[in-house]
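User: What would this chain look like folded?
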Amino acid sequence: MLTKRIIACLDVRDGNLAKSVKFVNTKDIGDPVKVAKEYYDDGLDELVFYDITASSDDRGIMLDVVERVARQVYIPFSVGGGIRNVDDANRLLMAGAEKINVNSAAVRRPDLISECSRAIGTQNTVLSVDIIKAAVSRDFPSGYQVVIDGGRKRTALDALEWSLRGEELGAGELVINSIDADGTKSGYEINLTRMIAEAVSIPVIASGGAGKPEHLLEVLTKGKADAALVASMVHYGDYTVRELKEWLHSRGVNIRLRF
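Assistant: Here's the prediction, encoded as structure tokens.
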């Protein structure tokens, strides 16, 4: 049985740790470098860093913040936001990232996924997909629609079809982020996560909605996710990474304990 992972998400805006609810009302809540070190020391499996305004502002990622975070953690570190070509990806790896996340730019130019996969490896190329519910139709047979630019723009892409296309193009992992659940702390979108996890053969990371340990247990079992991404529940001190991992372990989840 493969080990399940807990991944903390650091959304960064203007160099500050930020959090929103359903991608709106974003607030600055701390120092991403300090928080990354705290989570690493507490046993976190992996860290993902999103520069949440890089794509919408049409600029590159703030490499200085990536470098400072990378000096503090010795676990897999994934970075996304503003990656438009292989040169951007290579700069992030040189700054200390282990994986790169592509999202909006990949929707606009799908070949970006295959180019990055060939240049830096499939295992280092992650496709993040921001998703919102839609009426089931010919255009959206799964009932879920892909959105880009930090939730600002809806696309004509069906979420399941785009996830399968991303795997075909060379993505080594998928981050499935439900905008409807994002920041609500009311639970992951289990149907969405399970549907995609059952359709692809690469790891699926569930994102959006974590509020209590039971939510993680549900998405890692019923939702068939390989990893659960957390943000609000640890950023605001409701739970520690250590508490979450110990609780899941006590419920029979195969999770790495590193304290």
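Residues 5-250 form a domain with the TIM Barrel fold (CATH 3.20.20.70). If you want, I can go into more detail on any region.
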